[in-house]
Amino acid sequence: MKRIVAAGFLLVAGSELLALAGTDRSLILIMSGVAVACALLGLRWYLVRDSRPDAEEQRIDDAAESLRRWLSRTETLISQADATRRDWDRHLRPTLARQFEMATGQKRSKDRAAYDATGRILFGADLWAWVDPENVSRSGVTEPGPGRAALDEILQRLERV
Q: Would you say the C-alpha torsion 154, 120, 147, 72 has a positive or negative sign?
């Protein structure tokens, strides 16, 4: 749109310069009027073209596709809550730790003691063990994860922050 406005401005200015350079000064008004009309028609064409139903359908399709991807990711994460501790540590723990940092403003790299204390206050010792990014188990390959109930409680506490 900026290009069309700039082109219209340049068209009007150019037509006025041409009319001024000519010998008949009575054409300035006519040439400027034609240039403005062309610029306005071009702008109208651009606005009508942009608001076509196809463009609206494309936006709706993009939003629907985005929602489907989000739903698929969410279902995958929820299914990993019932999987093993290794799956929890690989997929859910980093996501939950990131959400915890965004919700509380605590950064693990700045002050580990304050980070840990905030996590224990918010979640309690039992749930903080499942969110704490430092509590990744290297040997818990077949150990069960905490399950959906723990994930639900963690998410509810994050929402309250």
A: positive
pLDDT top residue among 105 and 60 = 105
**Whole-prediction pTM value?**
0.57
Residues 80, 139 contacting (CB under 8 angstroms): no
SS3 for the chain is CHHHHHHHHHHHHHHHHHHHHCCCCCHHHHHHHHHHHHHHHHHHHHHHHHCCHHHHHHHHHHHHHHHHHHHHHHHHHHHHHCCEHHHHHHHHHHHHHHHHHHHHCCCCCCCHHHHHHHHHHHHHHHHHHHHCCCCCCCCCCCCECCCHHHHHHHHHHHHHC
pLDDT digits (tens, 9 = 90+) for 91-139: 888 999 999 998 888 888 788 889 999 999 999 999 999 999 988 888 7
